[in-house]
Amino acid sequence: VERRASTSREAKLEYLKRKRLQRMKSEKSNNSSFLNYTLSGSGGDNTFLRASAPCGVRLYNYPLLNPEVGSCSNDKDAFSKHKVAKFETLDFEWTNKIPECPIYSPTMEEFQEPLVYLEKIAPEASRYGICKIISPLVASVPAGVVLMKEKAGFKFTTRVQPLRLAEWGSDDKVTFFMSGRNYTFRDFEKMANKIFAHRYNSAGCLPATFIEKEFWHEIASGKTESVEYACDVDGSAFSSSPSDPLGKSRWNLKKLSRLPKSILRLLETSIPGVTEPMLYIGMLFSMFAWHVEDHYLY
């Protein structure tokens, strides 16, 4: 059974790769153009939510809202299209050569004191600017369930994030600030998974290496003009259930800033994104750049 499943998966991946190459060649021959727009993040760390089907997707071509007048804009000048030599390539194999960031797997004992552990790994991790820490504890209440059931009435507003970027600044920065729509977490999940399934004929996740190449193809010359992304949403996806081991731990971001070794405990005022966690809820191809945190905090 495992061999048949593996063979079927490999055949499907091979089919998707051929389909992508055919699409890329077709678009190149049609002299496809790129979207001119810019995008900048607003600070804060990504929080990745795991729900029942964790793969999101590109959007249908919803009309974009003009934030200045609050109505739909058909002004195509805002999205003038140009070629960009930087991305004129069919070869995305360079993505396979990007080194992984340091990955740490603390023991249960090391996991007891977050700030002590962070101080321990800082000499190495700080040389990279980013690292991944794998918790030895597993949340008994998934983040998606927290946002759908524990947080009654939880809703958020997305931003429309342009994807086909044609003109980049000298520092490779881009901006997005157009309002999207208001969602419950369940509605956003259903929308994202539906369109993901439509695009890839699959309800499950595909390998990250394949999706990464798909992302850079969309940036360069794809058909997806925009995706939706929720950033700077007040709240936390850590469970408040007394039976949830991760929620009870000191790594719960609602508790971290108030730990005895945290200098942030001295702040008398609550500051979203500094003393209190924020949520970032994305879908396939939404992006948030690796960046220096506010006040150089972790």
Automatic annotation (TrEMBL):
Upper classification of the organism: Eukaryota, Viridiplantae, Streptophyta, Embryophyta, Tracheophyta
One GO cellular component, as annotated: chromatin
Organism: Genlisea aurea
Protein name per UniProt: JmjC domain-containing protein
Coiled coil: none
Domain JmjN, residue spans: 101-142
Residue intervals of the JmjC domain: 248-298
Top-level lineage group: Eukaryota
SMART domains: JmjN (SM00545)
Entry keyword annotation includes GTP-binding: no
Gene Ontology MF terms in the entry: histone H3 demethylase activity; metal ion binding
BP-aspect Gene Ontology terms: regulation of gene expression
Key words, A-Z: Iron, Metal-binding
Segment forming the signal sequence: none
InterPro entries assigned to the protein according to its UniProt record, in alphabetical order: JmjC_dom, JmjN
